[in-house]
Specification:
The structure is a single chain. With about 575 residues, this protein is an all-alpha fold. The protein is built from 31 helices and six strands. It folds into three domains: about 190 residues, no CATH class; about 130 residues, no CATH class; about 160 residues, no CATH class. The chain has a two-stranded antiparallel sheet with strand order 1-2. A two-stranded antiparallel ribbon has the order 3-4. The longest helix is centred in the middle third of the chain and has 19 residues. The relative contact order is 0.14.
Length: about 575
Amino acid sequence: MRPSAVLALVSASIVAGLPALEAWGTSKSAPQPRAFLARIAPADRIRQALNRLTYGPRPGDVERVGAMGLEKWIEAQLHPESIPENPVMADKLRYLDTLDLSSSQLVRDYPSPQVARQMLSGRISFPTDPEMRILVARMASKDQGRVQDGAAADPNAPQPKTLADLLNPDQVRSLATGTPEERLAAFDALPAIKRDEAIVAMGQGMRRALFAAAPPSLRRKLEMADGPARVVALDLSEAKLLRAIYNERQLAELLDDFWFNHFNVYLDKGADRYLVTGYERDAIRPHVLGKFRDLLEATAKSPAMLFYLDNWQSAGPDVRQGRPQARRGLNENYARELMELHTLGVNGGYTQKDVTEVARCFTGWTIDRPLLGGPFFFDARRHDDGEKLVLGVVIPPGGGVLDGEKVLDILARRPATAHLVSRQLAQRFVADDPPQALVDRMADTFLKTDGDIRQVLETMLHSGEFWSVGAYRSKMKSPLEMAVSAVRAAGGKVDFAFALVNQVARMGQPLYRKMEPTGYSNSSTEWINTAGLVARMNFALQLAGDRLPGVKVDVADNASPGTPGQGIRLGSPDFQKH
């Protein structure tokens, strides 16, 4: 590998389109207003579209978009249903079977140690899959030090065994030493009846050494043996990377990430470990280009959001019966974030009294058995059914669940909401400090179309500001964008993505794990810090050296110019500019 290729990749990983001095704030930190009046050269328009409306161009993308026609390509991205699904992506995702399961199925089939103990005690039914029964017994016995009374409560749940119990010394030695390929050969040589038990008995280090050479079906079993519950989170993160790299519906993928951060929930908060999968799949992804009001209601009724912001526990002051948590009273967390972050904004014209009134409207919006992955339901016994006054609008008594839906109607149609959403979209796709004139036009479209997200984006994409000098090369990539665009630019092939997931976390963006309800910022400034930039350099060196597990990059092809359509050099403008 040529040293120049490494240097180019490292440089691109640091600034991703900003001149280095500007990235550190020693030059002008944001484009001046007049820069948004000057248009980029026609030859740069395709690169601008690919850098802003995708996770970064792949080898040959500039030529493909040029042949299709830029306007036609943008129109297709705005209507992703017109773009065929990438079969390569579909094949890689099919092994991540948690993505299609309901929350209750995830709790049952991928149990936490706590749920596993309940299975062993007989309070919850065991999974029907025999391999999972072994894993459940192993988890519980490890957690307790031993299975109570020397046997599981379920007589059909076998005790875990050690490798020495299962294999002879030569077989154990073969699995413990050698290259991943040699370990796989030793594993394949085992009798089929012993393989699953051997996986359970292996230590994590031995499983990791085998993982790199294992086919997808075996990798799945190795992941499960480390703990079924962690597989749910791993599948979410791997799927995000795989979709970002392989999906042809790139704008929809960017918007999925944008809206998830706008309506952020935290994966590691209790029941949300099992609720976030359905949240992204059912509440976010179907609405990324639809009506904002529909997206707002889908998130408001999602068990993941109800649990994250504690609204599932909120109850009116006169509740005298029902579940114990109903006695906890009014909870204003969701009401406050609904107005401050999701709709009106900090200066959106609401008062503390409005927060309280909105919280009253959402009492009774709860979850049926959240720790078991239950769905949303409205508990009328816990609802404050009195009259409310929200932003000057009277909500009459007796409305029940309609009280909350009326609040969503009010908030979704307020000018302050139109401006907040429009500014955040412009900040994500145009510039960190977008021109106010553009934001105003987008907000006007929002109000005229009843919050049609697609039409708001069309206003942005038909604007001069989007195609201006002020927008071109003006943003620094987030760690997620950095990792994905590097792999795409290099024409990388991803066998499995958990190593990429870890790299994104090291660069400062652990996926689905932003604890604060703000989500990850659309502004470049969040990513300009010493630790993050050092992590970017380390990632770049690993990728350039083809040392990233699960990712294959032919660096030799990217170290030289090549011919049009065959490759994008890692240090070229097609990679660096964003």
